[in-house]
User: Fold Methionine aminotransferase from Flavobacterium chuncheonense.
Amino acid sequence: MSKLPNSTTSIFSVMSQLANQHGAINLSQGFPNFPEDERLLKISERIIRENIHQYTPMVGLPSLLEKIAHQTEKQYHRKVNTATEMLITAGATQGVFTAINTFVNANDEVIILDPSYDSYEPSVLVAGGKPVRVSLNLDYTPNFNKIEAAITSKTKMIVVNNPHNPTGRIWTESDFEALETILEKHPEILILGDEVYEYITFTQPHISFNTREKLKHRTIIASSFGKSLHVTGWKVGYLIAPENLMHEMKKVHQFLVFSVNSFSQHAIAEYLDLVDFNIISKMYQSKRDLFQNLLKDSRFELMPCDGTYFQVVNYNSISNENDIDFAKKLITEHGVAAIPISVFYADATDKHMLRFCFAKTDDTLIAAAEKLCLL
Assistant:
């Protein structure tokens, strides 16, 4: 019998396929449609002919591990041991799967905050665990009363995605303090911190689990270069965790993928000497601001966007349809593809919200906004 009997084609594939069929502007899937940095392309062109095409070490290319450790210390003032506390993964999704399947056993419970990225629950189910879905507040901030009430003697892990996909919200200092207060009572619970959008933040700084002295001894942090460097197809991510946790995850990783794409690791390792993540963040902020400005006179209500490259909107003043039907009509009749937020909830909560990806060229955003403003 299948371990995922209820899994179907993802909403991202459905919406992108529908967009292709109808020639719609695709703001659904979360990937950029603009060129990569010319410096990265030049590095790639040069090293493709070098002797870099065999397996890298299981834990990752040593030079890339060193660059990540340097960036982590620079950004968060945390010194990470590359030999014992880091692991290069085939994207953050594989890192998430590895972390969950290392520590979650049959009947263990994992708290997931809804709306949530769609890979968390299947990873828990494959491990034989029980996903416990806890809804965020109406403004997509964490509800710590609900989180604490969901904790039982079987709770093994809580998954925290910050900055948050799909809503674009960022946790505050008080949010972390509230979590710390709760988890002080439950020292056995692990944290999986999904921080793939850590370098795409706007109005307030991203607070990383790397900086939380009370929590980092039991936290596994999943990060990725795909979002920050506009190379989502390269699938290069990494995990940071204390040695005792990392030692166990390496065992699962070894038999899941063994090692990650060698070319991508080499290219990124060299490129990290050149890239400025602050510039990347400012670039995405300018796109967010452009998209918000273009829609300010539309009938969509724009929700707060603190980070990521997603803008959530409410369409209550336009239609009473459920969000999946409205999203499909948006493609077929108005030529713009978005993702309905209800698919990110276990109970399909429908608040008439859509998620647009603004990691697109300015021309694409302008063309999409013109259509959206006609509604």
Remarks:
- The longest strand covers residues 155-161.
- The mean pLDDT is 96.
- The chain is about 40% helix and 15% strand.
- The longest helix spans residues 277-295.
